[in-house]
Sequence to fold (134 residues):
Amino acid sequence: MPIHPEATKIHGYEEKDLVGFPSSESLIYDLPDITIGHNISYDLRCLNEKGASSICTMTLFKKLNKNMQLGLENCKADYLVEKFFPEEAKTLIKQQHNASDDCLKVILLLKKITQLCPKIFTWREMQELQQKLK
Fold:
């Protein structure tokens, strides 16, 4: 698909810059078979995906807070984003239940988890950490 001229103005990429890179369609098959989200058990129930392989950033923060004594008041996504990413929070927390903003919050929370747990390199390792921590 051609790159729209407005996108080139904003990001600076032209079609010639993407030669040799895989198409976005091919990348979708490389996604993990793990569902990731904040309070993901709620989403999995809504999708009727009981028992699906998942990583829950809320569960991880609850367990990390207990094990690492992070001093968190709660593990709600907005609170965590405000605490760890105050600049990003200014724009992300304006709208509640905005799907794209919720995704960005989860990405930031995953980033913080990897900072707190620098020996975690894969989704599977993060999932194992979630299961291992009490």
Summary: The first helix runs from residue 5 to 11. Helices lie at 5-11, 24-27, 40-46, 57-68, 77-84, 86-92, 99-116, 123-132.
